[in-house]
Amino acid sequence: MYLVFFCVLLFFNCKETKEGNTSIVIIETNNRERVSFESTSALEDLRIVLENQPDIPILGDWSSEGDTITFMPVLPFTIGQTYNIKNRGGAVYVFDIEQESIKSATELLAIYPTTDSVPENLLKMYLVFSKPMQELGNSLDYITVLDNTSNKEVTVFLELQSELWNKDHTTLTLWLDPGRVKTDLIPNKILGLPIQEGHNYTITINANWKDSQGQPIDSTYTKTLSVGSRDSEKPNTKNWTINPPKKETKEPLTIHFNEALDYFLAMGSFTILDSDKNNIAGTFSLSNKERELHFYPNQTWKLGIYTMSVENRLEDLAGNNLNHLFDTDLKANDSKVKNNNNTYMSFIIQ
Predict the structure, then answer these.
(1) Quick one: 243 and 335 in the same domain?
(2) Would the CA dihedral through 66, 69, 70, 74 be positive or negative?
(3) Residue 75, domain extent
(4) Mean per-residue pLDDT for 28-48?
(5) InterPro entries given for it (predicted)?
(6) What is d(CA 150, CA 198) in angstroms, rounded to the nearest whole number?
(7) Is the pTM of this model over 0.85?
(8) How far apart are CA 15 and CA 225, in angstroms?
(9) How would you list the strands of the sheet with 152-153, edge to edge?
(10) Which residues pair with 64 in a beta bridge?
(11) Do 89 and 117 fall within a single domain?
């Protein structure tokens, strides 16, 4: 729980007497998301600033109901910072955002792909945190990549002005520069691939990276990548193996891919249908470093023929999907590229 502690500056009474009006008299409610107080001041006379940045107003929305004024900042007030409420340019109230007690620190739950062996044309990685992360700053400031083979720090990830976070701000997608991954493009010709075959890399996630509450993550994390040859083949469902469960059980249906696939695309690209083409409710999970998919039904399996629908947007670690290679020029080869939406595979429960 977070508290906002307010204190009145000593000169407040003098200012109030000099101006002959009633400014801020009572702080009514407060937290990191908003501050409310009673005042007869006009909204256009008020602003909130950081104490160490008195000339830069905090962005947010002002509203009033009677004598109660509420300010909601665009971004939550930051723990450990001191703010001033100003009336016509003069500081009237000072408040601090302090943490009442230390809660469990945010953890980095997973780095995908979980395998350490990746192709030299690896396209994406994902960082998954246990709590929402800060929305300010550049995430790449907290991520370093060391080429252990050359003993040099290298630039691997593409810096984006608008970072690719999920809605909850707990999962960050990191792209290895596609212009360098895709052959025959100028960045590839000038800079080469972001990671090189035969090299080993250590990715370090700095413990100074803060969550949305302004608290650093629980520790520094590292991941090693061992880079193999280029993956120039599409995922092929003919190479997959389906292990059907037994009837009248809730055993999982298991699909072996024989290669690591993109975690989040794999988790969202499969549907299981019964013999009447109705969706079967259940839960998916991945294992064996994203090489195996398991489907756990909510109800027991019945005797019959089932269909597994796979969205063709499903990708391997190099961004190759079921329709085409990542390196394919879709415009130039439009007549040669298949763009089917789904692939279907059948299995029998007996």
Answers:
(1) yes
(2) positive
(3) 2-99
(4) 76
(5) Cu-Rt/internalin_Ig-like
(6) 11
(7) no
(8) 63
(9) 117-119, 221-228, 200-205, 143-147, 152-153
(10) 69
(11) no
What tens digit of pLDDT does each residue of 227-237 get? 999 999 999 99
With beta carbons less than 8 A apart as the criterion, state whether 36 and 6 touch. Answer: no
Amino acid letter for position 83: Y
Average pLDDT, the chain: 85
d(CA 160, CA 221) in angstroms, rounded, equals 22
Question: Cα separation of 197 and 227, whole Å?
Answer: 5
| Block residue for tokens 């350490």 | 116
Q: Which pair of structure tokens corresponds to residue 80?
A: 């450990």
Whether residue 338 sits in one domain with residue 246? yes
For residues 45 and 89, give the distance between their C-alpha atoms in angstroms, rounded to a whole number.
8
Cα–Cα distances in Å, from 88 out to 22, 46, 73?
Answer: 13, 6, 19
Q: How far apart are CA 146 and CA 159, in angstroms?
A: 17
3-class DSSP state for residue 57?
Answer: strand
Chain-centre distance of CA 314, in angstroms? 19
CA distance 314 to 225: 23
Residues 92 and 49 sit within 8 Å (Cβ to Cβ): no
Do 21 and 12 meet the contact criterion of CB atoms below 8 Å apart? no
Sheet of 68-73, strand order: 24-30, 35-39, 68-73, 60-65
CA angle centred on 65, ends 64 and 69, rounded to 5°: 40
DSSP label at residue 104? P
Give the 3-state secondary structure of residue 264: helix
pLDDT at 64: 86
User: Please, what is the end-to-end C-alpha distance for the chain in angstroms?
Assistant: 55
Q: What domain count does the chain have?
A: 3
Cross-strand partners of 255? 242, 293
d(CA 175, CA 318): 11
- CATH label of the domain that carries residue 323: 2.60.40.1220
